[in-house]
Structure formats: C-alpha cells, structure tokens
Amino acid sequence: MQIRDLIKSALVSLLVLLVASCSSSPEKAAESSVSSKVPTTKSTQSKPTAWQQAYQEPQETSPNAPRKTVEKSPSSEPITDVWDRIRDGFVISDYQQLHPDSERHLRWFVDHPEYVARVVERARPYLHHIVEEVQKRDMPMEIVLLPVVESGFKPYAYSKSHAAGLWQFIPGTGKVYGLQQNWWYDGRRDVIQSTRAALDYLEKLHNDFGDWQLALAAYNCGEGTVGRAIKRNQAKGKATDFWSLDLPSETSAYVPKLMAVSHMVKYPERYDLSLSPVDNKPYLTTVNIGSQIDLAKAATMAGLSKDELFILNPAFNRWATAPEGPHVLVLPLTKVEQFKRALAEMPAQNRVKWARHKIQRGESLSVIASHYATTVSVIKKANNLQSNNIRAGSHLLIPASPAQSATLAANEATKNSNDSAQKKTYTVKAGDTWWDIARKYDTDVPTLTQWNKQSNHAVLQPGQTLVIWTNDVQRKSVNYTIRDGDSLWGISRKFNVSVAQVREWNGLSDRTLLQPGQNLTLYLDET
C-alpha cells in the first residue's frame, strides 16, 4: 500500500506541473509567432516613399529591398579577389533563373568572350574603388557593374546625347549632382567624383521608388518616365514591377542587360568565361597638389606614362589641371610617395611652362588665348590685368601647353630636314574615339585635339581627316613570353608603353586573347 501511495503522489505532482506548464505556453507561443513575423531589419520602420504611397501596393519583403549587412564569421577566409566581393553582394536577384530578355543579352556576352576580357581590363584600375563606395552605402553590388552597360568602362565614352564618362551623366544631371564642367575640366569623367554622384543619384531614385530595378530604369530614362509608366499601370489595375511597365525600348533592354552581366559574373565557369582576378586592395588614391600643374610633368614626377595618368584622370580637358581647381590628381598608391617627393622639390613657378609673348599690333587677348590653348581669364590673372585692354609691344606671361610647343616644333621641322618630326594624316573610322586615336599614335587626348583645333567633346565623323605629328624615336626590340595571369594592361605598365602600342607591334586585334607561352615583341626607348 505504501508503494501504491507513493506512485499515486508522484502522478499527482506530475499532473500539477503539466497544468502549470500549459497555462503559460500560449503566451510564449504568441511571442514566438509574433517574433517570427517581425522583419530582421531595424525595428524602426522607414516611411513609405512618395512613389510607394502614390502608385504601389504594400509589398512583402522582396529581393529589391535594401539588404541587411551580413557579417562574416571571423573564421571566414579573407577575400583576395574583388570579383568574389561583388558576387557576395548581389541582392537584386539570385540569378538562378534569368528572364528571357536577360538571356538574350547573356548569349551575346558568352558569344563574345574577347569583349568581356577587354571590359575587365578597362575596369581593373577603378573596380576596387567602386566596390568600396557601394559597400559603404550598403547598396547592391550589381551597381558596380553598371558602367559595363553604360560605357563599357571607357572613361572617355561620349554619347550622341552628350552623356560622358563611366557613368554617362548628361550635362544637366551632372550639374545637379555637383559635377563641375568647364573648359579645363569635366567632372562627369572624374572617376572619383562621378562615382560619388552616380551613387547619390541611384540612392535618391531608390528612395523614390523603393525598388532597385525601378531605380535603375529611372537612372536610364528619368524618374518622370518611370513614374508615368507606373501611373498608367495603376490606372489599369496592372502590376507595377519593372517587367510589367511599358518603358522606352532602350530602358526595357537596360535592366535585363545588367542582370545578364551580373549572372555572368556570378557563374563565369558555366560559360567557360575567365574573369582575370582583381586584387582586393586599394589601387588608387587622390593627391591634393594645391595649384595648377602640367599633366605631362605630373606623369613624369609619378613615374607614369601620360597614357597611364590620363586613364586615372580622364576629367582634364586640357594639358594641365584647371587654374582655379580642382587641384587633385588620382594616382596609383604605389606612386604617391615618389610623386610627393618630386612635387616638394619643384618650385611652384615650374609646375607649368610659361611663354613670354610680345603683343603684336591688332592682337586681342582672345586671339592670344586661342593661340596658346588657354583662356582670357587665365592670361589676365597671370599678368594682373584688370581689363581686356592690351598694348602692342608689351609682353605677357602665358602658361604654354605642351600641345602648343609640339605644334610649333613640328612646324619648324617641316623647314628643317634634320628634325625627325613628321606630319601625318589620319582618316577617322566608324567607332573611333579621340582616346583610341591618341593611344594609337602614342599621344594624349588634349594634345591630339589641340593639333586639330577641336574640343575633346567634339563628335568624330567617319571620313574626317585629322592631323597627327609624330617623332621617330630610336627603339630597341625586346621579346617577352606571356605567363599565366598576364594581361596587356599589366605588360604595358611593366614596360612603360601603352596597350595600343603592344597590340600594334604584334598585330593583335581588340579581340585577341593572350595565351601562356605566346611571345610578344616590344619596342622600348633606348634612352
């Protein structure tokens, strides 16, 4: 009986415990149910955007919503290739399945691997900086690839609609986002400033529309066009996502093309494509030089070719930085100390070449400024002139461009058979740019445009004839065997020549892919 009483007592105690447990579980279950529905973003909900309030129905979380930063565990392997950072940051789509419109663009890229290789090489000096800026703002990494669609990562790209630079800003939008544009400098081509402006604009568009695909569409065709398309669909009871909108044909192709590029970057091995690694470390930085400087001198001081300097500083329209600024150069990190030492040793008055001009009867400041590829305001400031009045027989100090010096030297060469300078003509072909032609003839865009009395904004026409001044330089030939991981960009930097020269010397087209073991012939200055 005692055992039976003990068992009975134990059962009663257990029953009491179970009842107590059940009485508290609904509350905990409710807590669990509520917490499972709370978004994993910050507890403070952001206000609906203007466009969401006007045109969009409330939506559940979507792949286009702002992404939550994911911290990697300390044990994660460090990322050494920028491409891996880009892949890890894709959020607009998972890219497992592409929209048919994107598949068409993907097929084109897969069928043109040589084009992909060229774009990768052009992107190389800028890629780490853009990735850093996008990540700082917690924006989708797809945006890093937008210049592939906009400009093919050509820093001097210039469209018929007057859009310029990697991010293809038109003049008006560029000014709205703080990009200076004047005779000396075009901020739309400034790699640092245009990237900042593009991300500012895209953030604004995303705040307006609450969706990254719509923001990208608006970047292409304008927020008004996208807003009206949303309004039309709302009036008809239709969906308002990007794929459902009736947009201009260029915009309808624009977002799918970026999705195709992103898919290709995420899964290159599926298509036998090779994206040459880009070091996951800073490549470039800015240096404040404080005053105007001759860009050819700056290149020499930094140990760079003019070609390399202009690749990083495509915003400068002329032979020197702007007299009134910005006085900032973009340089490779590895060249900064050398440049700063040379700058410190150079007297300020030697940063720009000066000419002493004797005023001739009938000359005006505008005529003299045109002759020396400068502006009236620069001449007035250099000579402390309060008005445009000048007197024949007086002298002016004028900052003289290398282009002007080269032209004068070449003119003298036609009178002196001992001089090696030669005048050539070049007939513009379809697709040519000032940048391409300048590289072909081992010069720079400001010099080439000065020879032809053109602005580098001028649109070249097929059949147009350009004047080219060349100097025959004694060179020695060097054979170079290509190794794994080599690129034309890297080889040209190593031997201080341009990519265009390497191609020309070896009969390589833009589509030629380098193979390990292949031999190249390089012609190097003997000096």
Automatic annotation (TrEMBL):
Record-level Gene Ontology MF annotations: hydrolase activity, acting on glycosyl bonds; lytic endotransglycosylase activity
SMART domains assigned to the protein according to its UniProt record, in alphabetical order: LysM
Residues in LysM domain copies: 355-398, 424-468, 478-522
Domain of life of the source: Bacteria
UniProt cross-references to Gene3D superfamilies, sorted A to Z: 1.10.530.10, LysM domain
Class of enzymatic activity (EC top level): hydrolase
The protein's name: Membrane-bound lytic murein transglycosylase D
Organism: Methylophaga thiooxydans
